[in-house]
Amino acid sequence: MGAFERLLDPRGIAVVGASIEASRPGNQTLVALKENGYAGGVYPVNPKYPEIAGYRCLASLAQVEGDCDIAVIALPAPQVAGVLRECAARGIRHAVVLGGGFREAGAGGAALEGELQATARASGVRFIGPNCLGLVNVHARAYAAWGSLTRPPRLAPGPVSVVLQSASFGMSLVIQAAQAGVGFRHVVTSGNEADVSTAEIIDAYVDDPGTRVILSYLEGVADGRRFMAAARRALAAGKPLVLIKAGNTVQGRRAAQSHTANMTGEYDVYRAAFRQCGVIEVDDVQAAVDMVACLLGGRLPAGNRVGVIGGSGGAAAMFADQADLCGLELPAFAAATAEALQASLPPLSVLRNPVDYTAGFPRPQAGLDFERAFQAVIDDPQVDQLAVMFAAAGRRQVAHGGELLARVAASSSKPLVVFSGMDESLAPEGLATLRAAGIPVLASPKRVALAMAKLAAHAGARRALADVRPASAAAGAVDAGTGVDAEAVLRSAGLAGHAGALDEAASKRLASAFGIPVTVDRLLPLEPSLADCEGLPFPVVLKIVSNDIAHKSDIGGVQLGIASPQALLQAARRIVADVRAARPDAALSGLLAAPMVEGALETLVGVVNDPGFGPVVAFGLGGVLAEVLHDMSYRVAPFDAAQARSMIGELRARALFDGVRGRAAVDVDALADVLARVSVLAWSLRDRLLEMDINPLLVRPVGQGVVAVDALAVMR
Amino acid sequence: MGAFERLLDPRGIAVVGASIEASRPGNQTLVALKENGYAGGVYPVNPKYPEIAGYRCLASLAQVEGDCDIAVIALPAPQVAGVLRECAARGIRHAVVLGGGFREAGAGGAALEGELQATARASGVRFIGPNCLGLVNVHARAYAAWGSLTRPPRLAPGPVSVVLQSASFGMSLVIQAAQAGVGFRHVVTSGNEADVSTAEIIDAYVDDPGTRVILSYLEGVADGRRFMAAARRALAAGKPLVLIKAGNTVQGRRAAQSHTANMTGEYDVYRAAFRQCGVIEVDDVQAAVDMVACLLGGRLPAGNRVGVIGGSGGAAAMFADQADLCGLELPAFAAATAEALQASLPPLSVLRNPVDYTAGFPRPQAGLDFERAFQAVIDDPQVDQLAVMFAAAGRRQVAHGGELLARVAASSSKPLVVFSGMDESLAPEGLATLRAAGIPVLASPKRVALAMAKLAAHAGARRALADVRPASAAAGAVDAGTGVDAEAVLRSAGLAGHAGALDEAASKRLASAFGIPVTVDRLLPLEPSLADCEGLPFPVVLKIVSNDIAHKSDIGGVQLGIASPQALLQAARRIVADVRAARPDAALSGLLAAPMVEGALETLVGVVNDPGFGPVVAFGLGGVLAEVLHDMSYRVAPFDAAQARSMIGELRARALFDGVRGRAAVDVDALADVLARVSVLAWSLRDRLLEMDINPLLVRPVGQGVVAVDALAVMR
Fold this sequence. Notes:
Chain A is an alpha/beta fold and about 725 residues long.
């Protein structure tokens, strides 16, 4: 295990600010340690009392004898930094700061939190919190915690480890999972994360051999790259990370910020990062519990194709509706499957996918063999997962079905998930059999479909991670850099030392240096002559060039469709006059003549430097409608062409790329290549580039490539 | 009560095809009647047995003595029609046909179903099914049912009545609601609906004084108008209709059709109909159960503004995120509320909306008065509903909170909904107190927000229904007609007797007859002279006119931006030549010169004649991107301008109407008026108009109105 081994599995726990009042955190921790039978050392610290909860009370941390790995600090905010120093003096390496009154409480609190951080750095003590409920090692019964973390239900030991930025909401998630039968290993509430972050906890869970699934509630991370690295480690280790993210909307962000003051940032970027790292993002408590249940089965699908069988046509329709919305496919069966179904199911059954054996399962009758039918569907080569619709099947039916499915599951490595509306009180035997066989049972067909879609996406992310060659500069380089010498590129493009906005010509040279195709433009003087126009590919576009002007067309700085040299001279006079009238302050460095590009799809690509995640690439269609609909997709840079392709496929308007209404399909291969190149540019220049817009980026018909018609980079 | 009083509350039940085998429907019905203690007459019919389940068995229906209102028919499909005739002969007015093998089983079954319908019509016997699980009157313990409808759990009596097109999925919904504490009055599974429809059952529930909330699972309705009338009656009666609709996507529709063969139709149209009738559509089992729990409280909000208070900032952030997504607002509080919060909550509390009193509730301490805080928020004039975030608060806290909220609820008529992650086993007292006070407790903040948003929308639909003046031709006319003499209008537009596609000029005359503004066009001969051009408002558009050509621009039949009479003559020659070359078969009746309209937002409006719902109006933005994104909204015609305004507001791209990126806001008032006029046109001409497209319909800046630039109507 890593740096936090002893934080997660402490040999002894001191409680500074120990109390005899049941409402105080410093009492609840001690009572929890006692009642749960923690076997390590327990050291209450409070000079006022001889003992608390049966433990001998010490006057100070200095008096702690024996191994002690955590000091739980239950004191008012101004006293906490001093205790950290005492921890260091006594050799206690970890603290858990329970109380609030820090950053979330305004300027005074922020100063106290800063003092805490400085003290921790100076002393080498790592701490959880402040403003949290602490942490629990369920297996070791180690409670460095208070509040809901110490109240019923007592968590059962199991392979799920949890990290929560909001303790109270997060514990409602843990409690509901516990009531659904999930067992836990560690629960850490991270509070303000003034020191130890969610990413570090995830890393510790990856290192913990007993953790199989990681569950997290997150509002924001300060260091997005650090979080992504931890999430990728979890993915690579086969420990799925199931996550609920809040603070994603205007009202939600406002609420989150008055709470832990965690930075939330742009949800679009988080969502991109989650997808790039195989994080299984869910949007509600029940979905998280469902997902954990499905992952504990340990099966991942090879694709998104689901075979559905059951006794409820309505459930099948509900499932199929959701499948359509979340990208699952109900494939046609192979001929052998259809034959097996025909031979084994009752006469009025529907033998296509979704299979409906109608009411009366399991009817004892010659020629009926339900197990053969289930087996045939899961074995079908077109099928990646099996969804079983028991719906309202009764106690004996579920019992019989459970036994049958346990055998089918044992014969296959494909995931199978059951929908049953029955709870433990109504179908105890069947549900117990299914659980023992590792088969998740969810209470609606929609929930089964949603979980299966997320299983499929997660499995795809795992495969993509495995596919990455170490030599692939873009995809493998998230932590390592891309191997591009940014300053050399800038020098070669004549841009070394530039700061501020680059003009269009310079911005295009920058793009071109990274292999991004740009229009072949000609820079003309502000008063061009006929000779200057020789060889131009009329019709052309003429545009003003100025470092000082970002939005040329708004002030008459662009003219389209210029058909001849004479027209160009006239247009040049008009443009220069208009621009000078509108922006007398702007330094004009010339005019750019560019070929007109017709018949292409107008897209745009942008680079932003996110405060949490660094360079991020955004992609979308051009035009005001796409802007209003916010039909954009995002990826954290750098990434490869395969990732770029999935980025394109994420747009709601993706059908436009295939060609609609008589238009030709466009060159998605070239587009994906260019998006990956933009991501390499963004990553390589991350210390120099503030933002960049390539707009429009025109995508031509298949085989004809893409071309950047305009570009604007802002350097620092 | 209405026509189905005795079906829902039978004095006696005969079971034709009574059986001694426990797996047979004809046995399960009898056992259920016996075990549940039905007090009416029970008449098994089977000549083979002297008695079944303790009831004396009869040789035929003719032997039934005493009152008998339902014959349950548990016989193979070919024998059912004969039994219906026997019902009629014996004076039994209702039948329940359990078995399948009818329409859902192919052509042979469809013929049997047709025979059943003809027999029922001839005999006056009304029947439920076939292909269903029957029906139950929970209060009377009357089971005309089998399968999951007769299995545990035994439903508790209560005010919720249910109608289900898929019995097995639907029963999983009923079972989950029952396990959540919901009590039931009637459950009807309607199967293939060969005779009695979901709409008729809803009507019967509206007439049933014991029904307060109606719950339905629906795949499709044959008569959309009939369904809407029933849903509107339920809305007017204050009996909310909560509904899950399946078969809405390509894969979902395919699944639904192999099941009950109900027609599903276009989901867009259903969704519009649901909104127009205040139907509370939910998308999953849990959401339905949540909704029923909220409606049983009997409170409806005056608007979409929610006050949030609790001890979990994370829960508040989760709530606020969902509120943002579903149109709920978290308003700023009035000054008095802020003062009350300041005076009553602990020091580190967040006093803005959402209020966070942090951990430790209810801390007994001088100066703290949590009840005052809850009361202040619910009483705030900016607040329509109160959401309480108990999250992971423990047993004693929920008990205390429950008592406090029960008092707060008693003092206010506003809805209040609690989020708690605790179940009955963890917080029994508090949950019981809340339930007794009619306060719903849902297990996630997202679920609270979703339910509150649907409560608000439903309340809005009720208010809109109350707002409709009897004199309002459009809105009041769904069942009554609009009072427009369609044939007179057609005559006045010179269109009486026309069939097939109308050309642009005729289509515009039709639109104009209903007060829809169209461009002032001039019809020119195919070879116009300079004299013909006199007074034209150049620049103009020139378009071919032909009944035979629907898509003019695809074959060169349109030219834009014609600046002069000379250019018009030239354009006319080019257009006629191109069109003749592309469509030598088409009869050309002239050319239309129309003014160019610039600077307007391009929209389109269409009328389709839906097979289930009749005339429906579709509205969206012009352009291929809007088409690909399917950003359209729908309403069943006719409707008024208020409904049209909500239709416009439903578009994802609605921000375009307010003006973005320097564009002017457009004339939404005029647009709403025109959409309502199109709906009156569609309804008035429903027997003549097959479809109509007004595309583009240009919407000018505020105050400048809208104008139809092209139109195409197809008559029959």
